[in-house]
Structure formats: C-alpha cells, structure tokens
Design goal:
The protein has helices spanning 8-21, 84-95, 110-121, 150-159, 200-208, 222-228, 275-289, 295-303, 335-342, 364-374, 397-407, and strands at residues 2-6, 25-29, 49-51, 58-59, 61-64, 77-78, 81-83, 100-105, 127-131, 134-137, 140-143, 166-170, 181-184, 192-193, 198-199, 214-218, 236-238, 245-248, 251-255, 264-268, 313-317, 320-324, 348-354, 380-384, 392-393, 413-419. The chain is an alpha/beta fold and 422 residues long.
Amino acid sequence: MKIAVLDTTHAGCVIAEEYAANGHDVTAIDIYHTSRERHSTRETPMSYTLTEHTPTVEFDLAVIPVHTPRRHFRELRAKRYITHHEAVGELLREKEVKTTIVEITGTRSKTTTALTLAHILESRYSVAVNTSAGLFLNERKIADLSIAPGNVLRAIELTEEESPDIYIFEISLGGTGEASYGVLTTLDDDYLIAEETKRASDAKIKTLFGEDTHPVVKSSTLDRVRRRTKPGRPITTFGREGDSVYIEGERLHYKLQEETMKERGEMSLPPLFEPAAYRTGIEAAAATALHLIKPEEIEERLTGYRGAIGRMQLREVEGRTLIDNSNSGARAEELNTLLTKAERYGRVFLIHGEDGRVCEGLNEEESKRTIREWEDKLIGVTLIGLKLNGTETAENIDDALRIALQQTKPGDVILSHIKCFR
C-alpha cells in the first residue's frame, strides 16, 4: 500500500516506520519543517521517504493528526483518510499485543491518573507507563517520549523485551480503541483544536473506546460517553456519591459491583501537599485498579503515596522539604496559592519559570507580579527562562535545585514551579 503520514513533529515518524516495517511504501510529510533526520528505536531502521512538501501522487491511505488544520493537507489526495490515533489502533491489532493496556485521556489530570495508577499496580504487576513525565518501567525511567499517539508504538518497542504485565498510556486527544480500559479523567475546561474548528472533547471521546474497551469515566461525562458506546455497555464511573469510586472528606469510598451494596467499602487517603489536586487522579486510578487488584492492596499502596513527580509531590531533600510542582501544566496564576500553602511548612525558597520547550508559555507579567509581592517573605528566588531584578537565573531544574540547596538550610522549604516537560 502507498501511505502518506503527516506531521513528523508529533511522532509521525514512529507511525511511518511501523508501516514501512510491515512492507508498505511510506512517505512521511514534515508539515512543520522540524525533522532533519529519521528517529528510530530499531537496530535496523525501516526505510521511508521524508519530505517537507505534499506529493502530487494519490495515496492509498493518508494518516493525519486529529488536530491538524485543513490547510496542511488540502492538496493531499488519498483513497482513505484516518487519524494518527486510528492508525496506531490498526497497527496494534496487526501486532496482536496481548498485554493489558490502559489508555488515559481527558482535558486535565491525565498524568496524575497514570502515575498514581502505576504506583498502585506495581505492588503486583510489572508496569510500563508513558506520560508527559516520560516512559517508565517499574519506576525506572526508560526514555523521554511525548504523549502523541504514535509513541504508544515506540513505548512498546522500548519495553517489550522485558514483557511488562500492564501498559499505561497517557494519550493526547483520544485513544487507539485497543485498550482493555479506557479512562476519561474529565472534560472540564474544554478547548478548540485544528485552528479552532473542532472541540478537543469530541476528539478524546471518539477514539478512546473500542469494542473491547471497558470505559472508566468521570460521572459528569457519562451522558456523552453513552452516546458514543453501545447501549447497555458496563461503564465504571467515579467522582460523585453513588459512583464506583468517590472521595468524600478524607476517605475514598468504593463499591465492587454496581448493585451489590454489601460490597461497598472505604479507605484512607494519602497525606499529600495538595489533596484537591489529586482528587480526580486518585478516583480515576482507584476505579481502574479495582478491576485488577483487591481493595486492600490499593489502600496499602496509597497509604505511603507522596504524589507523582512534578505533581504537587512532597518529599525531603537534604533535610529540606521539596514541594515539586514542575510540569507542563504549571500556570503563573496558581503561584500565589502555592506560596501561601508552602509557607505553612517553613521559610520558602522559590524556583520558577519555564524551559522553553512547552507549547504555551507562562504569563510572565503574572509571574513577576506575584514574585514582587512575595520578595520580602522569601529566602530567595531562582528563575529559569525569565529575568527579574533581585533574582538569580539557572539553566535547568537541576541547576536551580543546586542553587536552592546552597541558599537554604535543613527545615526550610523549596517550592519548584517550572513549566516544563519531564
């Protein structure tokens, strides 16, 4: 088959190489002009054509990201068009992957859900998890991969020799339809894609639930999910009283069967820096985990949980309390609230800024305004990617943490709030 794969920036090269490995004639089109070479995880890379221009020939199949504006493929001719998500689903079927797969999407809380679920399940299973924080196998970092759908294939390539029992994939804008469990965290704060011609929530729901996928969804999304799934299909819900899982006060409530009241139970929540930030993630993770392990195993893993890396994680570093909230979703508008909560633990040193690789940067004026308001209360400030009189600058998070440790003493607090991919 003659196949065109658009957008090498968002893991299109991975999809192109998989098709090439299956014997197809593949052309990868770099519509954003960012690829200078092919990227491969194979010992013998598969050959395909890489171009920045749309070929004039007709293809049998065109593979296009769901968020790509029409202007980028208006001149592309093909007998059939599918999205990257759909292509990865078809390729997974061809690979006949037998491992349990959990796919997670939504407008918020995807990474927190994925990393919390991995933490819970690692008590019994070998778990590979790919999120915006990177690809991990049993807590060991394997690679830095994005959450583009094509990287589902790359994550499997990088870990399949170690035969994980479960794959957990955070995926932007949907799923592959091949998951055992499809988790929809929330559709709150919906937004537009493809130059504001489509709703992100529509894309996320459309490809997440395949024929054999069990939906695990926030109850506020249930009506929309039901419209996309077969009537009568079992659905696990979380987030409200009466759902399979919900949090009330400092307790997590659950039920093992929809209609069996005697199988209800509850468990303690972990001592987190910002429990509200983890509510959806813990509810979604527990609702999924109940299909795979016993409630007492979940509670045991949650008891000592201190949070996911870069997601309001509270830990100790050389006698200092480190509050780590450096992630791709960090916002300048939340800095004042974080500082207010951090100072309850002691005198605060702030690490703040952006690393320049994220799609949407910080509100720089809001960052500076908040730092000026707090400057007399803080031990010091180190910035990354921003400049402000009276503060130090650092190249990266590690460099900033080194400076913070030099300027603080045991008992102090370091708040790390960088907008970055990790």
